[in-house]
């Protein structure tokens, strides 16, 4: 089997998470500068078997698209052109950043490390991937 890769797109940084090859566990992988994300994805997909992508869908609590939604749509379109053989799914990402902050706080990470926004982004990507897997595989 191959992995599923999740993306928490941001204007500055993009969080990345992946499943194990059997698609049992979703794990935070890394955070990359958004300007470098396509180069990272090309390299990663050349080294690992990735079946599909899950991109966080930014919505306000009322379900309307968030301000960044247009940028995410453009990102998804470019992703589909770059990887036409891979399916690209969208997953509601409401509250994932807040949940990531809570998880990091509860994990006992020191205060200075909790301020690391890159850590929040990759944990949020893992939460997006977990939600997708729960809704589609478990």
Report what the structure shows.
The chain is an alpha/beta fold and 138 residues long. It has one domain: Nucleotidyltransferase, domain 5. The chain has helices at residues 37-47, 69-82, 96-106, 111-114, 117-136, and strands spanning 3-8, 13-19, 26-33, 50-57, 87-92. Strands 3-2-1-4-5 form a 5-stranded mixed sheet, sandwiched between helices. The longest helix has 20 residues, at 117-136. It starts with a strand and ends with a helix.
Give a summary of the structure in a few sentences.
The chain is of the alpha/beta class. It is built from five helices and five strands, in the order βββαβαβααα. The longest helix has 20 residues, at 117-136.
Q: Tags for this entry?
A:
Nucleotidyltransferase, domain 5; globular; 138 residues
Radius of gyration: 14 Å
Q: Helix count?
A: 5
**Quick one: CATH superfamily?**
YqgF/RNase H-like domain
Helix content: 40-55%
Based on Cα principal axes, name the global outline: globular
CATH class: Alpha Beta
Number of strands: 5
How far from one another are the termini? 16 Å
Main beta-sheet annotation = 5 strands, mixed
Mean pLDDT metric = 92
CATH topology: Nucleotidyltransferase, domain 5
> What is the total domain count?
1
Question: Uncertain runs with pLDDT below 50, 5 residues or more?
Answer: none
Assign the structural class, choosing from mainly alpha, mainly beta, alpha/beta, alpha+beta, or little secondary structure: alpha/beta
Strand order of the largest sheet: 3-2-1-4-5
Strand content: 25-35%
Order of SSEs, N→C? EEEHEHEHHH
CATH second-level architecture: 2-Layer Sandwich
